[in-house]
Task: inverse folding
């Protein structure tokens, strides 16, 4: 998954989580597949947290820039 647009990234993470859930619900899933899907879900959670913090940082930077423009 490669997405640099933070708004699209959230959508793609959601789609990936749904795909994982579908695979996990298969009756013939092996324990190895289940572990790999759990790992993938964990990585998506990390990616989601990183994306959220970057989006928040960008928002804070823009806000700070606007405040400096008003003062300066």
Result:
């Amino acid at each position: 998954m490669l997405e640099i647009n933070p708004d699209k990234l959230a959508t793609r993470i959601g789609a990936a989580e749904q795909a994982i859930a579908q695979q996990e619900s298969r009756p013939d899933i092996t324990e190895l597949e289940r572990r790999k899907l759990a790992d993938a879900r964990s990585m998506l959670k990390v990616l989601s947290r990183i994306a959220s913090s970057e989006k928040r940082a960008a928002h804070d930077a823009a806000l700070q820039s606007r405040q400096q423009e008003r003062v300066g």
